[in-house]
């Protein structure tokens, strides 16, 4: 029964990623912890699946990708990945997750309030140099908690990227950073035979989940999708805070 639950949780995370472009780790990691799946194996499993889901999404949104932005984000992530490995091995995870959770709840709530007041706000952080900092934070959270999408989503919303551009940049960034993150997790000993066995079972099922997610995403209006993204940030923040 626990094996079935792990598979269903992983597939649900892949569906969330396909529909919204991010967030699978923030959904699946707390759920995997509830069924007794150890943290390092869960991190390795979700990291690998996230990379696999990002590959077809990158091809789908390739016309909306700003590759100059992606290059700067990835370069920043190269410095962030070892920082994340250091954090997960030396700093209390609960403290970091609580702080991140509070930030996501605050930011998501504030953004929804601005939309409700019909005050979307102006684009901020215009300088390209901010791309490197966003990438660094993304790499750190990615290698430690597979949460490298959240910093990019928040950064993209601050820069007021159109939804299509945000999804394209997100997926290209996921592919590049995902390869680095997965490699760092392998070297750090996160992968086990249990993780490999689960991947063998789950990967064929992605051929059903990914088309389903793509179909759902095409039936959500752009404005509604933005609201859902902010709502997801609040939900994910709550999951992290109470994890």
Gross geometry: globular
Report strand %. under 5%
Largest sheet, strands/sense/barrel: none
Query: What is the CA-based Rg, rounded?
Result: 17 Å
Q: Average pLDDT across residues? A: 82
Q: How far apart are the first and last residues' alpha carbons, in Å?
A: 22 Å
Q: What is the number of strand segments?
A: 0
Please, how many helices? 10
Order of helices and strands: HHHHHHHHHH
Q: In which range does the helix fraction lie?
A: over 70%
Structural class: mainly alpha
Can you offer a commentary on this structure?
There is one protein chain. The protein is an all-alpha fold and 243 residues long. It is 81% helix and 0% strand. It has ten helices and no strands. α3 runs antiparallel to α8.
Write the layout of secondary structure elements.
Elements: H1 2-20, H2 24-34, H3 39-60, H4 67-90, H5 93-116, H6 130-145, H7 149-158, H8 163-187, H9 193-218, H10 222-241
Helix pairs in contact: 1-2, 1-3, 1-9, 2-3, 3-8, 3-9, 4-6, 4-8, 5-10, 6-7, 7-8
Brief account:
The protein is an all-alpha fold and 243 residues long. The protein has helices at 2-20, 24-34, 39-60, 67-90, 93-116, 130-145, 149-158, 163-187, 193-218, 222-241.
Please tag this protein with its features.
single chain; mainly alpha; 81% helix
């Amino acid at each position: 029964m626990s094996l079935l639950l792990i598979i269903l949780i992983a597939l649900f995370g892949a569906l969330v990623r396909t529909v919204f472009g991010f967030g699978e780790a923030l959904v699946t990691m707390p759920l995997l912890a509830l069924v007794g799946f150890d943290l390092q194996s869960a991190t390795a499993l979700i990291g690998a699946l996230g990379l696999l889901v990002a590959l077809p999404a990158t091809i789908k949104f390739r016309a909306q990708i700003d590759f100059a932005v992606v290059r700067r984000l990835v370069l920043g992530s190269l410095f962030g990945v070892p920082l994340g490995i250091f954090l997960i091995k030396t700093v209390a995870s609960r403290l970091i997750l609580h702080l991140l959770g509070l930030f996501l709840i605050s930011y998501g709530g504030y953004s929804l309030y601005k939309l409700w007041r019909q005050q979307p706000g102006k684009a901020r952080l215009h300088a390209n140099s901010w791309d490197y900092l966003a990438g660094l934070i993304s790499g750190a959270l990615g290698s430690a908690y597979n949460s490298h999408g959240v910093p990019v989503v928040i950064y993209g919303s601050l820069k007021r990227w159109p939804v299509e551009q945000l999804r394209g940049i997100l997926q290209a960034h996921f592919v590049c950073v995902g390869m680095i993150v997965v490699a760092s997790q392998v070297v750090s000993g996160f992968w086990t035979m249990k993780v490999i066995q689960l991947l063998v079972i789950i990967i064929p099922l992605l051929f059903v989940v990914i088309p389903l997610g793509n179909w759902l995403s095409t039936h959500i209006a752009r404005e509604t999708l933005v609201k859902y993204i902010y709502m997801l940030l609040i939900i994910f923040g709550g999951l992290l805070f109470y994890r």
